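Minutes, project check-in

Agenda point 3 was the complex the collaborators sent over. CS summarized: two entities, 225 residues total, and the question is how they sit relative to each other. Sequences were read into the notes so everyone works from the same version.
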Amino acid sequence: GAVVSQHPSWVICKSGTSVKIECRSLDFQATTMFWYRQFPKQSLMLMATSNEGSKATYEQGVEKDKFLINHASLTLSTLTVTSAHPEDSSFYICSASLQGASYEQYFGPGTRLTVT
Amino acid sequence: DAKTTQPPSMDCAEGRAANLPCNHSTISGNEYVYWYRQIHSQGPQYIIHGLKNNETNEMASLIITEDRKSSTLILPHATLRDTAVYYCIVNPGNTPLVFGKGTRLSVIA
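CS then shared the predicted structure for the full assembly.
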């Protein structure tokens, strides 16, 4: 149980275009989802927290108008990288949580974005 | 900022126990100790978590010192597939996980 999927697993796009990444919780309902970014040889960096039906909370330094997050249902959150540039090339990972006394975050397999 | 300190890398012989240490001297009373691992180019995988008591599951054991200022993750019989970066994270369980640099474990045949 507690499986999280991401689509696509990798994508190459041209500079200036937008890319949408989907994150789905397959066998549970996730009221909260998280988006992380990971550059080569670095650790995961939290970008934003997404709650179903409300606006996402972005970490300091993350542009909300560039990284659009939508959490329209309890099983789906999307991250859209708008007007992508080569410096946005990274590994984007989502996670979803099961709330409880001490919840665990379950991570998706990640999406590798390359902007040319 | 991560509230944990881990060695940057460790080696372990295949079939032997891998003991990964973690210092979290500023841990609060309501914070759990979580362990995740990340195999190259994959999303992090949950391993185990605990509050005060030692914990064991099918993947690993977690030993937490009595003062809770440090812990050790034990993989009892390491295999080549256990080669990964292991992250120790302290978290109250209701906030996003913050990842430090972790320990890169290399299991050697």
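Noted in discussion: The interface with chain A takes residues 32, 34, 36, 38, 41-46, 49, 51, 87, 93-94, 96-102 of chain B (CB under 8 Å).
Follow-up: revisit at the next meeting once the mutant set is ready.
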